[in-house]
Design a protein that fits this description.
The structure holds 3 protein chains of 3 kinds.
Chain A: H1 2-24, E1 31-37, H2 42-63, E2 80-86, H3 90-104, E3 109-112, H4 116-129, E4 132-135, H5 142-146, E5 152-154, H6 160-173, E6 179-183, H7 188-204, E7 209-214, H8 224-233, E8 237-239, H9 244-254, H10 259-262, E9 264-266, H11 271-277, E10 286-288, H12 301-314, H13 320-339, H14 348-355, E11 359-362, E12 365-371, E13 376-378, E14 381-389, E15 394-403, H15 405-408, H16 416-421, E16 433-434
Parallel strand pairs in A: 1-2, 1-3, 3-4, 4-5, 6-7, 6-8, 8-9
Antiparallel strand pairs in A: 10-14, 11-12, 12-13, 14-15, 15-16
Chain B: H1 2-24, H2 27-51, H3 60-75, H4 82-104, H5 109-129, E1 139-140, E2 145-146, E3 149-150, H6 153-178, H7 182-192, H8 194-199, H9 204-230, E4 232-233, H10 240-253, H11 258-278, H12 283-297, H13 299-303
Antiparallel strand pairs in B: 1-4, 2-3
Helix pairs in contact in B: 1-6, 2-6, 2-7, 2-9, 2-10, 2-11, 3-4, 3-9, 4-9, 6-9, 10-11, 11-12
Chain C: H1 2-32, H2 39-58, H3 66-89, H4 99-121, E1 126-127, E2 137-140, E3 143-146, H5 147-169, H6 171-181, H7 183-188, H8 193-215, E4 220-221, H9 225-240, H10 245-265, H11 273-284
Antiparallel strand pairs in C: 1-4, 2-3
Helix pairs in contact in C: 1-5, 1-8, 1-9, 1-10, 2-3, 2-4, 2-8, 2-9, 3-8, 5-6, 9-10, 9-11
The chains are: A alpha/beta, B mainly alpha, C mainly alpha.
Chain lengths: 436, 316, 298
């Protein structure tokens, strides 16, 4: 029986030796970026636009065809090579894979990450291995509020922004709201979103009462009883961070039962479903694109390029995950190009130093690495109402309100939960704008 | 006694090999190996129950309790010593197993499996609701100290890996001795005919309870080790698919002995890792088909348990 | 007062849905002693095929009652194909093996089918809303309910009744009973064991696919569908007593009502209520509510 152990160890040693060879021969090779993203399972649907966008933008960077302000081929003078890895199988698997990725394949940078659990597990390992890690999507504020990192960045704002903006939107546009209810999936993102939204509502509109709460299991798909419970209480607004096929199922089931007629629905993640579901979505649901992405993107040559190329290539409009993955690559390019000023290949430390606290241009407008000691981005955001534009025969948005980043993100050094609980001190909301 | 001596030699030799590995292998291989070894620990615990014909489809619960006990003690209780943390992990799992055992020891067959799954899913649900413990995201476990010395980086990875290897070796020595005692032989007899065991004057339920607690302890220990190794815990440790994986390892191992359990854990982890690398989108397919082939082609490794045989079939 | 009526309505509709899927699982276990962990994938396959077929047809046609025909036909075709294929290639080879090995083989099957389905249908969700609005809504106790869900209750009763009749009232059913009781003896008396096992496994697959096909319009058919339901229906058949059809019905109803009461009265416990019910039932009835009779060995 000892033989089995020996054989196993031998196998591992052989694999390891091959790995060492591979990493030895990679001098002057492309800039390898590993994209860790859900390739299977429920979360993959949400991240596929991101994967598409990453491929498209990487190709454009390599070809040097990005519009201004991006010039030059490649990233710090090197061509990008993307590899996609599945973000599934639990934290233990992910940590092993992350180590394998860096040690064996010699990734110059890692980006992606759809789930907050992976982000939290990976961040310390990335730091230990000193590998540049750009988290593009996972939303929890905890990463940079609980820890300090040199090599880890997130180039999208965290979820607190969505809740703060939604509450301000309700205050501005729905003065008569007296009661609210919610149906949020029973996992960290759902719980955090509701906690934030509740705190933000207490701060801006303290008279609103919570009359019904629902905590369905993630992926349950059957919401009849929940809809009855919500409809029975008829709250003025219903907050839900159901996402993906859960949200689509919920919309399917609640529309014929008229839930949206008695209550206004706040569905931050609707954008992921709206183009797929088309006319099945009733008008008037309130949503955001988690930043000024997608339909909310301010016009710019960069956005025109991104949005039209994406539509042409993938036959659908880009949603926020597409923007987030693209933005992560643009952040990397900005930093690497700046670090490569004197013509030599920049190291991970140099790129990290250039990205820290940087501001860079993206299809969703400028993004600033303002929080978490220059490692966590803040960006402007917008909220609006979905409607079906019969003249153009597409989903569109109306009653849009735009919030500057400083209004809906906590100031540096303050934890987002405390910031909301204390009534959002230091928020500069003078530049809120209502679109016509 | 020669058989035991051979086992002891084998364990010692294996341990030396694993120790050499700590310096020879890159950390990503170490982390695959460390998780495999920890799962081997759980599989040895399951082995005790499988011999008695019981399939606990909820042992992820103890794995999870061990992980959370370690994490809570380290993150919120300020405990840093690795051995104290592991003792906390094993004992908390053991205490819960002792309590649950009073209920579970009355059950056999599929109902034992399902009830233990129900208990583990209740724990999973409670953890999901615990926002202060990070809900589905879990929380991070700081690096422990060993003999008062702090560790970090790659050396921490090798040290914790070695602790896992030593724990496994110790458990293998103890378990292989236990299986040769009278008590150890009663397990299979319970599976074959519980009533006869009772007539012979042994308390089958008490034996099952004892072994259940022991396997819970091992599950907790493994959970603590993995938590310290990975540095992050989340409720997924207690989800039913984790239990399924443990059962799979144990069944693959057969009920022959402690070596099978470790080998099976390694096979599963390696297949998993290889599939993950070569077929990132379809690793589940690779894993599933490998397992199916193993079951179809090698009934020997699997056939020694005949749990829940249909009533009316001829009995030996 | 109205709340309790609504709890009952929500509970019964949910229970009917569970029963529709659990029936095939308990049938296969009852006759073949196979705990089919891949049963949820049969359900998912039914949902995918039905959604795809309806997607093709209703892309150019107005929603009509033809949807129900499509659902029924696709479910039967999917179930028969899957059932026959897997029984002949895999399940048959496992005959005589212990229950755990067989259950684990089906677990392997679950992993494989998950990826195979993702290979065929991709990761994006398939909508199939055509039949969902056909039957209109009813207003009960001030709330609007979708009649489609009531139709599912009818379907569950119909299908449950048909399976009971098959087992109790036909010659095949009597052969089955002999088979359940003692396989060797039944074979010796001329019961065609292989053929009957094939029929039962296929029937189980068809029932699962039927559940999927009729659930498809309510949800979005997406990866992970099978894994979500399998633990739930395990709970149902364990509560009811493994292998008992009446047990599956009572178990489904119990789970449905408990879940619906939780949602209306204490929504925080939704995530584990099913397991609490299962643990409670097993604590007092160690073999479920309706355990099949068995022989005690001395």
């Amino acid at each position: 029986m000892k033989g089995i152990i020996i054989a196993a160890v031998r196998t591992l040693a052989v694999v390891a030796a091959t790995a060492a060879q591979i990493s030895a021969t990679q001098a002057q090779t492309p800039f390898r970026i590993a994209v860790v993203t859900p390739l299977s399972g429920t979360l993959s649907v949400i991240n596929i636009p991101g994967q598409n966008a990453a491929k498209m933008v990487a190709e454009a960077i390599n070809a040097g065809t990005l519009p201004t302000p991006y010039t030059g081929k490649g990233i710090g003078g090197r061509q990008i090579e993307l590899t996609f890895l599945d973000e599934n199988g639990g934290n233990a698997r992910q940590v092993s894979e992350f180590r394998a990725l860096v040690e064996r394949r010699g990734a110059d940078a890692v980006m992606g990450f759809g789930s907050a659990a992976t982000c939290l597990a990976i961040a310390p390992v990335a730091e230990e291995l000193k590998v540049l890690t750009i988290m593009s999507t996972c939303a929890t504020p905890r990463i940079f509020e609980d820890g300090k990192y040199e090599y880890v960045f997130r180039t999208a704002a965290h979820t607190t922004m969505d809740s703060a903006a939604l509450a301000l939107y309700v205050k501005a546009r729905m003065p008569n709201v007296k009661t609210m209810g919610h149906i949020n999936p029973n996992f960290a993102l759902g719980q955090d979103s509701w906690r934030d939204f509740f705190a933000a509502m207490k701060a801006v509109k303290p008279e609103v009462q919570v009359v019904v709460e629902q905590w369905p299991t993630l992926g349950s798909g059957q919401y009849s009883a929940e809809i009855s419970a919500l409809a029975g209480k008829q709250p003025d607004i219903i907050h839900t961070t159901l996402v993906g096929s859960d949200l689509e199922a919920f919309i399917n089931q609640m529309t014929p039962r008229g839930l949206n007629r008695d209550s206004r629905l706040l569905t931050p993640f609707l954008e992921l479903a709206m183009f797929r579901m088309g006319k099945q979505i009733p008008d008037g649901l309130i949503f955001t694109a988690r930043g000024t992405n997608g339909l909310f993107a301010p016009p710019s040559p960069l956005n025109d390029w991104f949005s039209s190329n994406y539509r042409e290539r993938f036959k659908e409009p880009p949603v926020f995950t597409a923007y987030q993955y693209a933005n992560a690559l643009l952040a990397l390019k900005t930093a690497a190009d700046r670090a490569a000023k004197d013509g030599k290949t920049p190291s991970a430390v140099e790129i990290a130093a250039a990205l820290k606290g940087a501001t860079f241009e993206t299809p969703s407008g400028p993004i600033r690495m303002a929080l978490g000691n220059g490692h966590q981005a803040i960006q402007d955001t917008a909220i609006g109402e979905i409607f079906f534009d019969k003249t153009k025969n597409v989903q569109s948005v109306r009653n849009v309100t735009r919030f500057p980043a400083e209004c809906v993100n906590p100031p540096e050094g303050m934890a987002s939960e405390a910031w909301l609980k204390n009534g959002m001190p230091g928020a500069d909301c003078t530049k809120i704008k209502n679109d016509e | 006694m020669t058989g035991q001596a051979r086992t002891d030699m084998g364990v010692a030799a294996g341990l030396v090999l694993l120790a050499i590995g700590a310096y020879a292998m890159p950390t990503w291989v170490l982390s695959v190996a460390a998780v495999a070894l920890a799962k081997g620990l759980v599989a040895i615990g399951l082995l005790l129950l499988l011999r008695a014909g019981l399939v606990p489809f909820g042992h992820a619960m103890y794995f999870c309790i061990g992980g959370y006990a370690t994490g809570i003690a380290a993150q919120f209780g300020g405990v840093r010593d690795i051995f104290l943390l592991l003792a906390i992990a094993a004992c908390s799992a053991g205490v819960i197993a002792l309590a649950a055992g009073f209920l579970l020891r009355r059950y056999r067959g599929i109902f034992f499996a399902m009830l233990s799954m129900a208990l583990s899913m209740i724990l999973y649900g409670i953890l999901l609701k615990s926002q202060s413990l990070g809900s589905s995201d879990g929380f991070s476990v700081p690096r422990p100290t060993i003999f008062g010395l702090s560790m970090a980086g790659a050396s921490a990875v090798s040290i914790i890996y070695l602790v896992i290897a030593v724990s496994l070796a110790a458990v293998m020595l103890i378990a292989s001795r236990y299986l040769k005692t009278t008590l150890g032989h009663i397990g299979p007899a319970v599976r074959l005919n519980e009533l006869r065991i009772e007539y012979l004057g042994y308390a089958a339920e008490r034996l099952i309870h004892l072994e259940y607690v022991a396997s819970g302890l091992l599950g907790g220990l493994a959970g603590g080790l993995v938590a310290l190794f990975i540095g992050q815990i989340d409720p997924g440790m207690g989800f039913w698919t984790t239990s399924g994986e443990f059962v799979f390892i144990a069944i693959l191992a057969g009920t022959g002995g402690v070596w099978g359990a470790v080998a099976a854990a390694f096979i599963l982890e390696i297949v998993h890792a290889v599939a993950f690398n070569f077929a990132p989108q379809y690793w589940k397919f690779v894993l599933g088909s490998t397992l199916l082939v193993l079951i179809l082609r090698f009934p020997g490794g699997l056939s020694s348990i005949r749990w829940g045989r249909r009533a009316g079939q001829a009995d030996a | 007062m109205w709340t309790s009526l609504i709890i009952v309505i929500d509970g019964v509709t949910y229970g009917a849905w569970l029963f529709l899927v659990a029936l095939g699982l308990t049938l296969i276990f009852g006759v073949m002693k196979i705990l089919n962990i891949a049963h949820g994938n049969f359900y998912a396959a039914g949902a995918y095929v039905a959604a795809t077929a309806m997607g093709y047809w209703f892309a150019n046609h107005e929603p009509s009652y033809l949807a129900f025909v499509i659902q029924l036909v696709t479910a039967v075709v999917t179930g028969v194909l899957l059932g026959v294929l897997l029984e002949v290639t895999i399940v048959r080879r496992l005959r005589g093996r212990d229950e755990v090995s067989v259950a684990l083989a089906t677990f392997a099957l679950l992993l494989m089918m998950d990826d195979a389905m993702q290979f065929i249908w991709g990761a994006a969700a398939y909508p199939a809303p055509a039949p969902y609005g056909l039957l209109g809504t009813s207003k009960i106790a001030g709330l609007r309910f979708n009649n489609y869900e009531f139709a599912l209750v009818g379907l569950a009763i119909l299908v449950g009744g048909a399976v009971c009749w098959l087992l109790m009232g036909t010659r095949t059913g009597r052969s089955l009973k002999a088979l359940i009781y003692d396989r060797e003896m039944a074979a010796a008396m001329g019961v065609p064991v292989d053929a009957l096992y094939l029929v039962i496994f296929t029937l189980g697959a068809v029932l699962a696919a039927l559940g999927g096909a009729f659930t498809a319009p309510m949800i979005q058919v997406a990866p992970g569908l099978g894994a979500e339901i399998i633990v739930l229906i395990f709970a149902v058949i364990v509560i009811g007593g493994m292998g008992s059809i009446l047990g599956a019905a009572v178990g489904a109803l119990l789970v449905g009502l408990a879940r619906s009461a939780t949602i209306h009265l204490y929504p925080f416990a939704e995530v584990y209520i099913v397991y609490v019910v299962m643990a409670l039932v097993l604590a007092f009835r160690p073999e479920g509510l309706f355990p099949p009779a068995k022989i005690r060995k001395i």
